[in-house]
Amino acid sequence: MQQITKRQIQILLQLLENSEPTTTKELAEQQNVSVRTIKYDLDTIRLWLHERNQDLASKRSQGVWLVLSDSERIKLKSELMEVERLELFADQTLRLDRLSIQLMLTNQAITSFELADRLMVSKDTILHDLDALEQQLIAQGMTLERLPRKGFLITGPERQIRLLIEQVVQKDLTDYDIYKIMDLLLQSEKREGYELYAAKGTAFQVVLNEVLADMRQLLKQIDTSDLNYAELLNMVIRVAIATVRLKNEYTIGRYQLLNDPKEQQELSYLLMQEVFDHYQLPLFEDEYRYIYSDTFENSPAQDVMLLTENLIQKVSKKVNHAFYNDPQLLTNLYAHLSMRLSRKQKFVNEYNPFKDDIKAKYPRLFEAIEAVVLKEIQGERLLINDSFIAYIALHFLVSYEKEADLRSVRVVYVCSTGLGVTSLIKQKISEELTNIEIAAFASVLNAQEVIKQKEPDLVISIFPIEGMDCEFIKVHPLPTKQDLDKIRQTVKKILSQSPQNGRRKLRLESAGNRASLEDFSKELILQAYTIYEKLLVLFQEKLSQEYREAFLLHVFLMVHRIIFDQQYVMEGTKTDEAQLASESISKEIEQLFAEHNLTINQSEINALFAYIKG
Q1: Where is the PRD domain (predicted)?
Q2: Rg of the chain's alpha carbons, rounded to an integer?
Q3: How confident is the model at residue 282 (pLDDT cuts 50, 70, 90)?
Q4: For 179-228, what is the HEC assignment?
């Protein structure tokens, strides 16, 4: 059977998702390799397809593509995306990961013959890999023990060993893995487990499925709307790691039992209790601290606003881009760092689907942020890894994009949601597509609920969601050119099938097509000024003269907000100014806007009364 690499699987999946030809140059840019390497990969892919009675079509100047029926595409996708990956050829990087997992999930030395058998390679290959692994372990404060006539065993600080296990497991997770694991946790009728490629054939795999089963039962009893899937994933993995290490008689700290009623309400405690009871393990306090968070008790207090300002200034200087001119970046990045650094549950190894794309496509920005963060953030160096840097980079990438907001097809976008992330995705898509409206962003945890509530025309997701009643497109975490082309074709298809979806949410637009952006802008200005003059008449002498120019600007911006569905939404009770407004004037304002085919909400009406005398 022909073996294929992880990169070749990614190329094949992309070809299966595209109906149009893709050039070798485009594939090379996406995979961050040379065109020659892609051509070698395509030769291997042809052999793999030939074994399945399929062929890879190609034509000079056009590219490569697959001619398949829908059922054939689904069949091949399923084979490639299943985590078993029986034909995946392990390069040395992958073998070192699997070697380290094998040697850390046991308390018994393993011989080179047994390791060679488990990884299905020769003994010479294993010995060569062990030399390379030893150097990596030394750099991380661990040791590869070589025990005469017994074999090999990894020893070192328990926290470092557990972090390495977690790092390897999380690194090998794919979007498909995340989706299937979350689906198992949330679909209570499912009982099967899930196999992780990195942990295949180890005690960790057995324990993980027990943890998934117990977590599934716990989630039935609680509200999952506030859960973060990355933290949920970390919790599951850490309980499994702690269980395996304790079964092998390795503890992370003291033998003091946990006896804190406050902690016993936490989901992480309830999960640990269920799993540890199953394996008859004691509930040690330090084991719970490990499962709950990477704690940094000795970290000095830090001014997060000053940190944010310094970060923006210094990154701007390194990449020669004036990020400091973007006030929204300061706001969003401050909010992100405040939550990230003050959060009770801090995990070093957090799954980040954007990490690889950002490192490959924006290496200069990534390196600049990493250098500044290492100098500016105090005391939490363990927390600063590629995932941490990538989430910060998302906020900076927002400033690179120019927002456009003319859409018509309703879309629900399923991704890793968070401040800055959704803005970046919105800008990436709307930069080239001017006729979609993103109705909502959802995470893999609440995707089905949001889709049901919003009833979109199209679902775009970084995860492969099954059972969609509407059009569905799977994209990369950072949308590629091919992703945008797929969205464009699908939007065109939806609009052609359902002309009513083609009406943009711009109230000023006539039944025919808008002639130009210039005409639209002119119409918007005239309408806003007409409304301003009518409001002057309505308010008469009540409008403060000193605020008249400010009122004009306010009305123009208000009309713009209404047209683009961005009206104020006031929280809490009404303002004092709003309380002074009579109900009759409010009704007149509503009628005035209705005459111009605009619907104004109460918060916008209340804001107008701020310009009234007294």
Answers
A1: 299-406, 519-614
A2: 28
A3: very high
A4: HHHHHHHHCCCCCCCCCCHHHCCCHHHHHHHHHHHHHHHHHCCCCCCCCC
Cα separation, 70 vs 81, in Å, equals: 16
pLDDT digits (tens, 9 = 90+) for 347-406: 555 666 677 778 888 888 999 998 998 888 765 555 677 778 888 888 888 766 543 333
Q: What are phi and psi of 106, to 5 degrees?
A: -150, 160
pLDDT reported for residue 506:
34
Kindly provide the b/e burial profile for residues 441-471, where b requires at least 16 CB atoms within 10 angstroms of the residue's own CB.
bbbbbbbbebbeeeebbbbbbbbbbeeeeeb
Average pLDDT over residues 150-160: 90
pTM for the structure as a whole: 0.52
End-to-end, the C-alpha distance of the chain in Å comes to 84
| 170 DSSP 8-state letter | H
CATH of domain 409-502: 3.40.50.2300
Which residues in 427-579 belong to E strands, given as ranges?
A: 436-442, 458-461, 471-474
Q: So what's the pLDDT on residue 510?
A: 33
Residue length of the chain = 614
DSSP 8-state code for residue 399: T
Q: How does residue 94 score in pLDDT terms, banded at 50, 70 and 90?
A: confident
| Locus of tokens 């961050």 | 32
The Cα–Cα gap between 39 and 61 comes to 14
Cβ 486 vs Cβ 473: under 8 Å: yes
Is residue 305 a contact partner of residue 336, using CB atoms and an 8 Å limit? no
Q: What CATH code is assigned to 6-81?
A: 1.10.10.10
Interatomic CA distance for residues 25 and 33, integer angstroms: 10
CB burial readout 73-94, b (16+ within 10 A) else e:
eeebbeebbebebeebebeeeb
409-502 matches 6-81 in CATH topology: no
Q: Which long-range contacts (CB under 8 A, 24 or more apart) does 592-596 make?
A: 592/531, 592/534, 592/535, 592/538, 593/531, 593/562, 596/507, 596/527, 596/530, 596/531
| DSSP at 611 | G
For residue 153, the surrounding DSSP H or E stretch is strand 151-155
Q: Mean pLDDT over residues 50-60, rounded?
A: 87
The angle, 0 to 180 degrees and rounded to 10, between the axes of the packed helices 35-50 and 6-17 is 80
What is d(CA 474, CA 460) in angstroms, rounded to the nearest whole number? Answer: 6
Both structure tokens of 278: 């199953």
- Residue boundaries of the structural domains of the chain: 6-81, 92-156, 163-292, 304-393, 409-502, 517-611
DSSP code string of 33-69: S-HHHHHHHHHHHHHHHHTTT--EEEETTTEEEE---
Q: 436 has which bridge partners?
A: 409
User: What pLDDT score does 240 carry?
Assistant: 93
Specify the pairing of strand 409-414 against strand 458-461: parallel
